[in-house]
Each structure stands twice: as structure tokens, then as C-alpha cells.
Amino acid sequence: MTDRREFLAGAGAALAVSPGSAAAGVSGGGDAFLDEWQAETDLVRPEDFRRYMSGGGNPGGLAALDSLERAWEKAVAEIAAAKPGDVPAVWLIYNMGVVVKTRESLFSIDLVHRRAPELAPKLDFALISHNHGDHYTPAFYAAMNGSGKTVVNNFIDNYGAADWRKGGMYWATGGYTRGVKVFKIRDVEIRTSLCDHNQYLIDYTTAFEIRCGGWKMFHSGDCSSYEKLNPIWGSPDLWVQMPGCSFDNAAGEKKLKPRLTAFGHFAEMGHGKGRVTAKLVRDRAKKVVDAGGRVVVPRWGERIV
Length: 305
What we know:
Blueprint: H1 4-7, H2 22-25, H3 32-42, H4 46-53, H5 63-81, E1 89-92, E2 98-101, E3 106-109, H6 116-119, E4 125-127, H7 138-146, E5 150-152, E6 169-172, E7 175-178, E8 182-185, E9 188-195, E10 205-212, E11 215-219, E12 238-241, H8 249-256, E13 261-263, H9 278-290, E14 295-296
Parallel strand pairs: 3-4, 4-5, 11-12, 12-13, 13-14
Antiparallel strand pairs: 1-2, 2-3, 6-7, 8-9, 9-10, 10-11
């Protein structure tokens, strides 16, 4: 499977979309790699992915699972070697998972991979947007919590609520606080807020506004309610979002005005029905472009910034 750099022949971005470009803003000559990627991942059943995640390997020789394993090796090697300056380095690991390296810190958001616990000793902290298995695994949480590492979340002990049914509550001195809390960990500031996953899971997802020096990032998890996304530190340099969940991409783009939007959640293999498709990505990318933005679709293991 061709990765994004080969696909774009050195253009320097993934499915790069910018105002004024042809074919809904897809640069680099097309986006056929999305169809190829979807075809590979469609061969992976949810039970195949669960077996892989639980250490059962890849007995069917499924190409997508081999790609995911190679992507991990690639990203971990790059993370170890990277020496970022004023602008942190950001990698997509799988689905909505990212690892961010600053001058002083290494942290993850929604990190899900079979080997994620291996990275826990090297991470300074982790952020988890919500209690769904494609954004959080007990094994990774246990590795972080067992090492005394902060895990910012809204559903399990460790700077979060003790009961997942209290979604959207954060522990602070004197009791639980609703929604907004600011953390300062090493050289990184994190501001939490709440948004709806869908019309039933209200205030279920934590959105993270992140600032490191003058660089800003926003990660909205599986958010469906752009109205509840209200960053206070200005337009982000990078916004990682899910293009699905009935999210209004055009309205969100106009409101937040990020320098770059990165779509996650494409080719999520734990889902049966309801996977984000290449068609949906194209449709949502066009909405971002028509709203004046630029969007990339990074491949697993690739560096976004």
C-alpha cells in the first residue's frame, strides 16, 4: 500500500486539500489511495482486529494488520529520533491516536494500538477523549496509571471521574467540576471542554485545547457538536478531528479557523457497520476546503507536523 509521501511524489503532505485546487481540493493528482486503503481494511472483520489487539497475531495474513504493525515501528523510531524546536512533532498512530513530542515532553491522545503499553514508560502523560474502545484500552491505561503517569480523561480514576456514567466531570480540589479544567504539565498546557458524541451521548467526549509556547493544537475526538467547541487560545495550528458523527465540518472550520485540519478515524477496523468511508472523507474534505481551510488525511504512523 502506497504511503502518502509516495502518493504525492514528495509534495510534503497527505491528502492535502487547499482552497482553489481542483477536484474538491485534492492535491498531488488524486486520492485513489483512499479506495485502496479502504479495500484493505474492509477485509479485516472486527473479530480479526480484536484477536490482533489481544495478542492473537494475524493468522489470516491480512495486509492491513501488517501495515498497522509496520506503521508502529516506523513511528516509534521517528519519535525517538526527533528533536523538535518551537513547533512540536505530531504523529498519527491509529484511528484518532496521536503522539506529540515537544522540546521537553512526550504525550499521547487517544492512543490505541496493540503495542501502546510499550510506549507508556517514555510518555510524560496521556489524554483520552472518551470511553470507547477505539480511543482507549484498559491495557494502555494500566501501563500509564501503574507508572504513576497522569491520564487526563472523564471516565476513570486519574484526573477524571471514578464512574463512566459521570461523563464530563473532572475532579478538582473540593469536588467535581463540570467540563472545563486547565492542566499545566511540563511545557504543555491542556484545557478540557465537553462536546456531544451524538444525539444520545451528550457531553460524552472531551475536547482538548493544547498550547506549547506559541503553538496550538485542538483534538476534538468523536465530536458531533461544533457549537460546543470554544477554544480560548485562538485558532489552532493543527486540529485533529473525526469527519463523521454528523459533524458540520464547514461550520466548524469557519468557527475555529485552523491552519491545518487532519482527519482521523478513516479505516477504523474495530467497527463493523459505520466505518468512515473514502466517500465520506472526500465529501467532508470538500466542505473544509469550501469553508476556506486545508485538510490532510495522514496514514498510520505518519508524521503530520
